[in-house]
Amino acid sequence: PVPKDISVIFVLGGPGVGKGTQCARMVKDYGFVHLSAGDLLRAEQNRKGSEFGELIKKYIAEGLIVPQEITIQLLKNAILEHYYTKETSKQSKKFLVDGFPRKMDQAITFEKEITPSKVVLFFDCSEDIMLTRLMERAKTSGREDDNIESIKKRFKTFVETSMPVVEYFEKMDKVVKIDCAKSVDEVYEEVKAALKNYE
Ligand code: UP5
Ligand code: MG
């Protein structure tokens, strides 16, 4: 069972909006553990002997959401690993869950089986800006989904499948929307202001 004294903040927003970049800053200043669902899936895809490698690869290239059983298990393992580690520098009860949940079933299952989120940071900017950021990153990222075909599919999935999750949390008054069209520093100022109420 998952310990009761953990806290989780969901970090949501479209592809390339800057979730990972802002999470890295928050880790430095607040001591959160950063769990990117996408990073966990990519690590599982590359793990020798993983029975899900091929499936994950296909879903990511198509910009589709990997079945929740896989992603939630990976998140749960990562949370428990950090919670129970003997290495104090890695120990934490405060988690930033980045890029998850991005489908309604995931939102409901995670909050029921693991813990309800404390707050949802929703990073927002236009698709034009996200596209520019992703095409720039594509030059060096080595990510197989950083190409124009996959990016278009990721945008479509975000609008159709992931925005309903943001709207669901909005109805629960849990969402803080952050304008990400600005510089990394300016966005981070807004993030810090948002966290004041939850730290
Ligand atoms: N950058 C960042 N902020 C900037 C700013 N303010 N001004 C200028 N530049 C800025 O940033 C992207 C780029 O923009 C970087 O080069 C950065 O320097 C620059 P980054 O912080 O990496 O953005 P992020 O939002 O993290 O973008 P990412 O591509 O990681 O978002 P996605 O949501 O698309 O990717 P993720 O890894 O979360 O998911 C990938 C795939 O995994 C999904 O498409 C899906 O197929 C699968 N998945 C699931 O199936 N289930 C899940 O639960 C999660 C993922
Ligand atoms: Mg990311």
TrEMBL record:
Binding positions (a ribonucleoside 5'-phosphate): R42, L64, I65, V66, G99, F100, P101, R102, Q106, R143, R154
GO cellular component: cytoplasm; nucleus
Cofactor: Mg(2+)
Top-level EC class as recorded in UniProt: transferase
Catalytic activity, as annotated: UMP + ATP = UDP + ADP
Domain of life: Eukaryota
Location (main, coarse): cytoplasm
GO biological process: 'de novo' pyrimidine nucleobase biosynthetic process; pyrimidine nucleotide biosynthetic process
Keyword Chloroplast: no
EC number(s) from the headed UniProt entry: 2.7.4.14
Gene Ontology molecular function, alphabetical: ATP binding; UMP kinase activity
Cofactor detail note: Binds 1 Mg(2+) ion per monomer.
Compartment annotation: Cytoplasm; Nucleus
Region (NMPbind): 36-66
Residues reported in the UniProt entry to bind ATP: G16, V17, G18, K19, G20, T21, R137, K182
The protein's role, per its UniProt record: Catalyzes the phosphorylation of pyrimidine nucleoside monophosphates at the expense of ATP. Plays an important role in de novo pyrimidine nucleotide biosynthesis. Has preference for UMP and dUMP as phosphate acceptors, but can also use CMP, dCMP and AMP.
Domain notes: Consists of three domains, a large central CORE domain and two small peripheral domains, NMPbind and LID, which undergo movements during catalysis. The LID domain closes over the site of phosphoryl transfer upon ATP binding. Assembling and dissambling the active center during each catalytic cycle provides an effective means to prevent ATP hydrolysis.
Assembly with partners or alone: Monomer.
Name this protein carries in UniProt: Uridylate kinase
Species of origin: Hanseniaspora osmophila
